[in-house]
Amino acid sequence: MTERLRIGVTRWDDVPDEARDRYWARVVEAGGEVMDLDEAARDRVVEIAPTLDGLVLTGGIDVDPAKYGAERHVKVKEVAPERDDMELAYLQAALDRDIPVLAICRGHQLLNVGFGGTLLQHIDSGEHRADFRTEGYPSRWHQITLEPGSRTANAYGATQFEINSRHHQAVGRAHLASGLKPIGFADEHGDQLVEAMESKQHAWVVGVQWHPERPEAHKPDFHPLQRKLFSAFIEETKKGR
After folding, report:
1. Do residues 54 and 236 lie in contact, with contact meaning Cβ atoms separated by under 8 Å?
2. Less packed terminus of the chain by CB within 10 Å, N or C?
3. pLDDT in tens, 193-209
4. What is the model's pLDDT at position 1?
5. How much of the chain, in percent, has pLDDT values that exceed 90?
6. 35-45: burial string, b at 16+ Cβ within 10 Å, e else
7. pLDDT grade for 124, boundaries at 50, 70 and 90
8. CA distances (Å), 169 to each of 27, 130, 236, in order?
9. What does the alpha-carbon distance between residue 238 and residue 236 come to, in Å, rounded to a whole number?
């Protein structure tokens, strides 16, 4: 029997258990075995990183602006520099080996910082944050357009669909690292907010600003579509075996 692919999935104590379980479930469904990269894995990068077939950078609190040399915006309320350091170390190790990386929400932003970019620290409109006035803090929603022929569009088999949105920071066009290619944009913002991006020099390194791991039960078409991204990610990891 073929050994399951070993996928590092990052988290920190700011990630609730139910959110962690969603990431893990999507990886397992697609055919991967989860390697839990939590605080205990922070000092084991040299040991663990070479054993991974792929890396998932997950959502969570804000990336520390000090990591990209910026003054802290007043709306940046909570950061975890130790988490940033750990994830950046695992990211660099993954890039050095050119194994697949899937970066989600905060992970998408951290990916940009890891490539030398900066961040838009706060979206003033509030139209991308979760709805904190409603019970359960539901996602907000908007349309996205992906570049035809991109890895991400190929994974989905589509270039336009509706995505969830739960963030107040973003990768703006002006903040994008030179090694990353913007391939997805929120329709209402034109090409100013980068909702999806890919490495120019690696085989399969993808960042998405939305949350493909969330079931979003009231949107029955969302989960089946988003599973395609995890399937494509796992399929890419097989090429390194």
Report:
1. yes
2. N
3. 999 999 999 999 999 99
4. 41
5. 85
6. bebeeebbeeb
7. confident
8. 25, 12, 29
9. 5
Residue found under tokens 């609730």: 16
pTM: 0.96
Give me the residue spans of the domains in the chain. 5-238
Give dist(CA 171, CA 159) in Å, integer: 20
Integer Cα distance of 220 and 198 in angstroms: 27
Count of alpha carbons within 13 angstroms of residue 153, beta-carbon side? 14
Q: How confident is the model at residue 35 (pLDDT cuts 50, 70, 90)?
A: very high
132 contacts: CB under 8 Å, gap ≥ 6: none
Q: What is the DSSP string of 171-186?
A: -BGGG--TTEEEEEEE
Half-sphere exposure of residue 115, counting CA atoms within 13 Å on the CB side? 28
Helix, strand, coil percent values for the chain (each to nearest 5): 35, 25, 40
Q: Which CATH number fits domain 5-238: 3.40.50.880, 3.40.50.2300, 3.10.180.10, 3.60.15.10?
A: 3.40.50.880
Q: What pLDDT was estimated at residue 16?
A: 79
* 222 has pLDDT over 60: yes
